[in-house]
């Protein structure tokens, strides 16, 4: 059964949303680039995502690098770019 919420805070995510996640002991902020709902290469690795368990490709505001995270690892910030 698919969940109605995407993030640990229970809010849906969309392209352009500002999010934060824990990385190496500190909080990193960035922007959602895309929602991944099938097996794909993203963020330098193969991601085993599905419509029931999507993952999100995000771009760090600090480094500009892309990463992929499960919705539970992301916290939606206020505002959109």
TrEMBL record:
Gene3D superfamilies: 2.30.30.1060. Pfam families: Hva1_TUDOR. InterPro entries: Hva1_TUDOR. Residues 66-81 have a biased composition (Basic residues). Residues 1-35 have a biased composition (Basic and acidic residues). Residues 1-81 are annotated as: Disordered. Residues 16-74 form the Hypervirulence associated protein TUDOR domain. It comes from the Bacteria. This is DUF2945 domain-containing protein. It comes from Streptomyces pactum.
